[in-house]
# Entry
Amino acid sequence: MTELEDALRATLRTHERDIDASTIQRDYAAIASQRMPTQRLWPALIAGAVVAIVGLVAYVAWPLGGTATDQPVGRPTAQNIAPPPAASGPFQVWLSERVIPAGGADVAAALTGPAEPMDEDQQTFGVGARVDRWDGEQWQPHRDVRLCMDFWDCVGELYPPDGQLVVEGIGLGLDASGVGPTTLVRIDGLDPGWYRLRQTSNDGVEANGIFEVVPADDVETVPLGARDPGRLRLQPAFLPTTGGFLSINRLQTSQAALDAGDPGPPVGDVLDLEMWADASWHSMGIVHVNRDATAGITGASIPELAVGAYRLVDSSQPVEAQAVFWVTDNTSATPLPGGPQ
# Structure
């Protein structure tokens, strides 16, 4: 059996309640007929709930077990600079892209670390960060960063390291499973080489995520989708291959409606599940939405899936809504995704 067939069969293992098996089997031949190298399916860290502390307000998601381990780094660059040591320490930054083309890419990031009690002693990070460049011997400050929360209508950016950047005063902590909130940033304008995204807590504790910028233009990256009002938001953004529960909601379509207390359009009863491979989304079937009116929770149980990037699409409203999530194999920190290894 080929590696492609193994990956497809692993992806097509389903729970009867949560996915329409006949729909998946119908699409199997169409997907298998295409060349889908499994090394392009995105690995990620096991993740759990997401907590974003805004003043005294905590955003809580559904937890999954797991903590981060040291993260691997890239291959030699054209400059023949020796690669940096793997990121270490109790806190790290998971990045959805580890190999980034010089033309840039949108990247999802999440803090990972030891599970901590939610009290005044918890390490608190923010949406301000830095990008350091590896010079072959040590890390050098290179850019200041403003991260955007995944529910904001923006993607974060890099800025000159002049100390003039002012960011929102938002505290980001880890939940009981050791996972922080999902943030977004556009990484571009960097020369080929090794870099790290560095966040620092209120107590000076650092969390790092290493990535490589390469001159190749054919490095495949996963599109995170437009930041359109009314889009889906999934919590957590990462699941293990064994599956798990995603809470799902549609973000409000306007600030005025949000201020008025309008909950926004409901999530549809059935969502399309798609997998990213060979630079496009492939239909994998459907997912049924569950609602718990008492707890005020809307979500879906995701079945066993192969490592990769996936998205859920809600077509129940006139304006389609979607969101991306990742699946990890739980066996390593974050092997380099996409492109030649």
Q: What stands out?
A: The chain is about 10% helix and 35% strand.
